[in-house]
């Protein structure tokens, strides 16, 4: 039972080390070209093997049965650790919002846009509000909704007024 408990504690230490310096430790496995080997999976296997074997041994199971319980619990925990680390590493991340991401979005005019000048619009891109200078071919009053049609500079866009159907007579 003591050997199983020591393995369980060593496995937890490996898992903690993988949380702190996982990328550095996983670099040691790059030479093996085995994508499924990670320190989190190895630590999870070792700790689950040790603690699972200790529980089975403490319950009075013979040594081969304790080892079998440890292996099965180790494989399950190792697979789960591998799956979680792949999910985190391969998951999408939000990139920096660029002005080009606003093209095609609907914006609201904050400062009126004159024919030969710039006004200001606010557009929400990916949950991030952007306030940009805007130019249009016709004057647009503050409060109007516009479509962003192009990028003029790193801080300015071209816009057109959102088409509104004519009001039907009552």
CA-atom Rg in angstroms = 30 Å
Given as residue ranges, the uncertain stretches (5+ residues, pLDDT < 50) are none
Number of helical stretches of at least 4 residues: 3
Q: How many domains, in number, for the residues? A: 2
Mean residue pLDDT = 84
Query: Distance between the terminal alpha carbons, to the nearest Å?
Result: 87 Å
Tell me the β content: 15-25%
What's the β-strand tally?
A: 5
Tell me, briefly, the overall form: rod-shaped
Approximate helicity band: 40-55%
SS-derived structural category:
alpha+beta
Q: How are the strands of the largest sheet arranged?
A: 1-2-3-5-4
Question: For the report, how would you describe the main beta sheet?
Answer: 5 strands, mixed, barrel
Description:
This protein is 43% helix and 21% strand. The model has no long low-confidence stretch (mean pLDDT 84). A hairpin with a 2-residue loop joins strand 4 and strand 5 (156-161). The protein folds into 2 domains: 2-90, no CATH class; 99-161, OB fold (Dihydrolipoamide Acetyltransferase, E2P), CATH 2.40.50.140. Strands 1-2-3-5-4 form a 5-stranded mixed beta barrel. Helix 1 (2-26) runs antiparallel to helix 2 (39-58) and helix 2 (39-58) packs antiparallel against helix 3 (63-90). It has 170 residues and is α+β, with helices and mostly antiparallel strands. Keywords: Membrane, Transmembrane, Transmembrane helix.
């Amino acid at each position: 039972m003591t050997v199983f408990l020591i393995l369980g504690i060593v496995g937890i230490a490996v898992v903690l080390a993988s949380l702190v310096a996982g990328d550095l430790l996983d670099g040691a496995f790059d030479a093996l070209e085995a994508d499924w080997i990670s320190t989190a999976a190895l630590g999870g296997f070792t700790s689950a093997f040790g603690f699972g074997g200790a529980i089975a041994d403490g319950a009075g199971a013979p040594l081969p049965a304790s080892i079998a319980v440890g292996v099965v619990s180790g494989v399950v925990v190792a697979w789960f650790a591998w799956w979680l680390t792949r999910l985190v590493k391969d998951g999408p991340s939000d990139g920096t919002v660029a002005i080009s991401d606003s093209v095609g979005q609907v914006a609201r005019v904050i400062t009126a846009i004159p024919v030969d000048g710039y006004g200001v619009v606010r557009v929400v891109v990916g949950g991030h509000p952007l306030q940009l200078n805007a130019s249009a071919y016709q004057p647009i009053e503050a409060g109007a909704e516009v479509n962003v049609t192009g990028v003029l500079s790193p801080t300015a866009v071209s816009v057109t007024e959102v088409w509104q159907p004519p009001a039907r007579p009552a």
